[in-house]
Amino acid sequence: MNRLSLILERKIRDKKAKIGVIGLGYVGLPLVKAFLNKGFTVTGFDIDPRKIRMLKQGRSYLKHIAIDDVKSAFKARRFSATDDFKRLSRMDAIIICVPTPLDSHRNPDLSFVLHTAETVAATIRKGQLIVLESTTYPGTTDDEMRPILERNGLRAGHDFFLAFSPERENPGDPVFSTARIPKVVGGYSKDCLRVANALYSQVVVKTVPVSSTKVAESAKLLENIFRSVNIALVNEMKMILDRLGIDVWEVIRAASSKPFGFMPFYPGPGLGGHCIPIDPFYLTWKAREVEYSTKFIELAGEINTFMPSYVMAKTIEALGQRCRSIKGARVLVLGIAYKKDIDDQRESPSFKIISLLREKGAKVSYNDPHIPAPGPSREYPHLSLRSVPLTASRLKSMDAVVIATDHSAYDFDWIAKNSRLVVDARNAIKKRRSNVVKA
Ligand SMILES: NC(=O)c1ccc[n+]([C@@H]2O[C@H](COP(=O)([O-])OP(=O)(O)OC[C@H]3O[C@@H](n4cnc5c(N)ncnc54)[C@H](O)[C@@H]3O)[C@@H](O)[C@H]2O)c1
Question: Which candidate, 56, 70, 131, 383, has a CA 20 to 30 Å from the CA of 288?
Answer without folding.
Answer: 131
